[in-house]
Design brief:
This protein has helices at 52-59, 82-92, 108-118, 123-136, 152-164, 182-198, 210-214, and strands spanning 8-21, 24-37, 41-45, 67-72, 75-76, 93-96, 170-174, 202-206, 218-223, 226-230. By secondary structure, the chain is of the alpha/beta class. It has one domain (8-232): P-loop containing nucleotide triphosphate hydrolases (Rossmann fold), CATH 3.40.50.300.
Length: 237
């Protein structure tokens, strides 16, 4: 893979996160600084508990850092009010979790359409866009099925369609293949990579899968509260 643009879309400056643990502070990470150019597919690796998920939550304005700043798509993310943060997420961020968080009582089509409906878009428009995205992820024949009737891989593909229907600039994926078997995980990763290319996304993928991480443009490793950049080809366990 080769980067095609050099404009930073996301900038992190001096980011720290601490938790109170009894009478002591537990430092998850401190003084993280990095920037990500538009069009980059970046992997974040590190052991469980290193802070990968917390970092993604802060980048998406779902959590606040103890100190430091996040700038994304012209927004000072951690200075936003709750209402502005929700609007920022709906406008700029597509988020995919390890567990898909699909709404079980709604069909696949309705799940994908939900972000547009929450914006106040017309039902007919939201349905049309959802049908297009179901086709994009290979689920065009499954639109009337509920999530419980889909396989794990299909559920994650559905979650990707829901995350991207709003045409966000940035995709954040937290262990998107973590609950899937090897072959299904490979298919989901390939889909993420294709959607990244086709829709000119900037993608940050937290993953334990070093084989997938090696196929990204860049790799950042969180370890003992610090972050280091690793050449993808040199990444090893």
């Amino acid at each position: 893979m080769h980067q095609i643009a050099q404009d930073p879309i996301l900038r992190v400056e001096g980011l720290s996160k601490r938790f109170r643990s009894g009478e002591a502070d537990l430092v998850l990470f401190e003084n993280l600084s990095f920037q990500i150019e538009k069009g980059t597919m970046l992997a974040i690796v590190g052991q469980s508990g290193a802070g990968k998920s917390t970092l993604l939550h802060i980048l998406a304005a779902l959590d606040r850092p103890t100190s430091g700043s996040v700038y994304c798509a012209d927004s000072h993310v951690n200075a936003l009010t709750e209402d502005d943060a929700a609007e920022f997420r709906n406008r700029e961020i597509g988020y995919v979790w390890q567990f898909h968080y699909l709404l079980p009582e709604f069909t696949a089509l309705e799940n994908v359409a939900m972000p547009l409906l929450s914006r106040g878009q017309a039902v007919s428009f939201a349905k049309q866009e959802a049908e297009s995205w179901l086709h994009e992820v290979g689920l065009e024949t499954r639109g009337h099925h509920r999530p419980g009737e889909l396989s794990g891989g299909e559920q994650q593909r559905l979650a990707l369609a829901r995350a991207l229907i709003t045409e966000p600039k940035v995709l954040l994926a937290d262990e998107p293949t973590g609950d899937l078997d090897g072959r299904t995980g490979e298919m989901v990763f390939e889909l993420v990579a294709r959607l990244h290319r086709d829709h000119q996304l900037t993608s940050l993928i937290a993953t334990h899968n070093l084989e997938f991480a090696r196929r990204c443009h860049r790799v950042l490793r969180l370890h003992k509260g610090k972050m280091e950049e690793v050449e993808p080809a040199r990444l090893s366990s």
